[in-house]
Amino acid sequence: MIESNSILLFVTDAPKSASFYGQLLGQEPVEASPTFAMFILPSGLALGLWSKTGVEPAPAATGGGCDLGFKVATADTVDTLHAEWQGKGATILLPPTNLDFGRTFVAADPDGHRLRVCGGRLKHVPQLDRSGIGKPCTHRARSWLHAGLSRKGRSA
């Protein structure tokens, strides 16, 4: 069985990106060079930052095409991280917001890669209908963001 254990983000300036992520994550990269840096996240996922100059095959996409998700335990932690990351210079694309899967915010790194922090689980979130008038949410979202559980481990 093949297992995913890393994600590589193509960046303009690997040392600058490594400094940015080092500040946000509160850790130093386990590997760093002028064209590459690697962090090992608490989950065990390796986050690589690779200078896009010279990569073969050349990357076709730029930052912002997907979210790199960071799950935290509570909605309060989402708010705390938002304030910390904003204070460390992260560009905030979405301030803390309640969505059907919990509280979340989205920041961007220097290359525009989207970083989504989410946590807590909401019991009820109003949804807006097309007229903009709120109505209750009647379903529970099925998302990995809930608690990182597999489908078998998640209650309906």
Blueprint (SSEs and pairs):
Elements: E1 6-11, H1 14-25, E2 31-33, E3 36-40, E4 46-51, E5 67-72, H2 75-87, E6 91-99, E7 102-108, E8 114-119, E9 127-128, E10 134-135
Parallel strand pairs: 1-4, 5-8
Antiparallel strand pairs: 2-3, 3-4, 6-7, 7-8, 9-10
Features:
globular, 156 residues, four-stranded mixed β-sheet, single chain, alpha+beta
Give a brief description.
The chain is of the alpha+beta class. It has helices at residues 14-25, 75-87, and strands spanning 6-11, 31-33, 36-40, 46-51, 67-72, 91-99, 102-108, 114-119, 127-128, 134-135. The radius of gyration is 17 Å and the shape is globular.
Low-confidence spans: pLDDT under 50, at least 5 residues? 128-156
Q: Kindly state the mean pLDDT as a whole number? A: 81
From the alpha carbons, calculate the radius of gyration and give it in angstroms: 17 Å
Strand adjacency order, main sheet: 1-4-3-2
Largest sheet: 4 strands, mixed
Q: Helix/strand-derived class?
A: alpha+beta
The count of strands amounts to: 10
Distance between the termini: 29 Å
> What form results from the Cα inertia axes?
globular
Q: Work out the oligomeric state of the chains in this entry.
A: single chain
